[in-house]
Amino acid sequence: MDSPAIVIRDLTRRFGKFTAVDNVTLNVAAGQFFGFLGPNGAGKSTTIKMLTGLLAPTSGYIELLGLDFATHALEIKRQIGVVPEGLALFGRLTASEYLRFVGRMYGLDRDTTNRRTGELLDFMNLADEPKKLVTDFSHGMQKKLALAAAVIHGPRILFLDEPFEGVDAIAAGTLKAMLQRMTERGATIFLTSHVLEIVERLCSHVAIIHQGRLVANGSIDALRAGVAASLTGPQPDEKLTLEEIFLRIVSGSGSGTAEEAVQELSWLA
After folding, report:
1. Each residue of 220-252: pLDDT tens digit?
2. CATH number of the domain at 6-221, out of 3.40.228.10, 3.60.40.10, 3.40.50.300, 2.60.40.10?
3. In Å, how far from its chain's centre is CA 37?
4. Nearest residue to 175 (alpha-carbon basis) of 154, 151, 153
5. What is the pTM assigned to this prediction?
């Protein structure tokens, strides 16, 4: 059996007295489209920052592609791609200048970099205004450029933090198809998103983090079966959606519904 693409053991990150990520242990198989879910402030982005070297863990072990991150960080970074929470693009460059810079930084030769830059700009529908600076792009255009930069070197692991936020429906469909083809060719994708319909459509396995702790991990079918088995009373004919699974696991309500948890504002009641 191939070794996991991502191995996390007892990963912890503290900011002063606040523990953002608390002893998370997780394996992600190679070639898996993996969803990492949680409410706002649960620790998702902090975890991704540690997995990609943007933030040092307080304690714990990270292994990517069979390599210990603590001792092989540069070698690992050459083989991963990242669309981070804050895009951190170079706004005073054009899209083509930015992609050529990123390609060369990853060690691609000039011809390969130029060819892939042209292909990505066409694919992302960013080639129409070649002299437009990145700072003048819409948020959705910047998201597409960030994703283009993350895949230009053909990464073996791709980390995506809310990649579809601000992206129009047509572009989102194109990007989803591209990502699925990447996993079919053996790449591993680690995705965070609050749009659970997208996660359910794309991912085979998910983990849920809540208040810094991992509260669920497994295939969507296994989590669905586990939640369904915990329910009491008449069961719906249709299988639980990922949103229903997520709400029941995070709330710990067992039999409650999202509607029951809604509080009313006095001036809107």
Report:
1. 999 999 888 887 655 555 689 999 999 999 987
2. 3.40.50.300
3. 9
4. 151
5. 0.90
